[in-house]
Input
Amino acid sequence: MVNAGSQPVTPTMKDNSEKPTPALDQDQDNSSIMKGSATPKEVNVAAVMWKKIRLTKANFHQASRFVLECSVSVTPPRTLYVGLASIFMSAVLEACRGNRDVPADETPFIVSGTIGHMLICVNPSMNIAAHMIRAGLAYRDHPAIATGTTLVRNYGELAERVARIATALKQTYGLKPGDRIALMLFNCPEYVELLYAAWHAGLVVVPINAKLHPNEFEYILRNSGSRLCFASSELEAVARSLTDTVMATVVEVGGTDYNRLLEADPLPLVTRSADDPAWLFYTSGTTGQPKGATLSHRNLVAMCHCYFADVDPVSPWSAILHAAPMSHGSGLYGLAFVMQAGCHVLPERPGFDCAEIYALIEHWPGIAFFAAPTMVRRLLDQYAGSDTDNLKAIIYGGGPMYVEDCREALERFGPKLTQLYGQG
Output
């Protein structure tokens, strides 16, 4: 194989003699793939070759790169590539088993990477809500939403609610694909189902920080062009005060109108283009008015796979604790956990209660959560000997982490911190 800007790699055949094979002939390497002119036959030849190669630590990532190169260049019919990529992934996983040259913790990378490239590059039609449908069918009994230690609903129930609400958004409120709906919500069990119901119906979500000033609510609602707003009971009056000037309708989450949405029949998934808007993400507005960044379905799917590859690469992805607002980073990371049918855990107490956070870490194995550096500092200050073995990862961002705090957190929790920026 020929990597970009490199010399041909001489792979090693997996036989008793471990003799190296000669370098590939240029007519059979992936030079045409790199140029974007590969035919299905050329991809097939390359895939067969990779099935024969003994994977090593040196060529492991080259193998995954090959999948990407194929996915962005192979000519129609693209369905052939999907089949080849599936065969290739199986061959890679088979080669990984018992191969000491390939780190075991890198295996999830090739799995998520291959599937991700198939989704992102091969299929021009994409709706991230398809992941909810898959979770509801394949993992219907898996816990999906929990409040504290109490299970609220499983994935089978959640997926059905999503499809029913999607129908009501279309039929009751007359919303069409591309319309925007705003979420003025504190963290609640309904947050996930509203995100996915909107996408299921082909709509665009506009999550809004529930702690903003009413003037900021008005600006974002007006600027986004939201036609419908779902509001927490604490914010319903504020939202309704804006209906005359900004939008037509407000629905209180948990109220009568909201519960009536669930009486609709399930809606088939609405097809969207990979580049269609899915999430209108508003910045904090610290340097002026908040600015809406448009995230497409392709953006969100790619983000999920980057989460598995770069942020939290070790399976299983059992649970995410929404200790921070779901309108921001915590909600974005929740999408990756839907993809893996992980449980979304919401604290019962308002605000950030460190004692409750520690209790939930003890209760939920393999739990991860997003936190601002100040939240990490509070956890360190209020530590009272709790068992944190279940803690898998703390993803922090949104502000500077002092070196002393980072070192103390690493000493207290172990190597479980991941730093990021620019997620929205």
Notes: Residues 78-96 form the longest helix (19 residues).
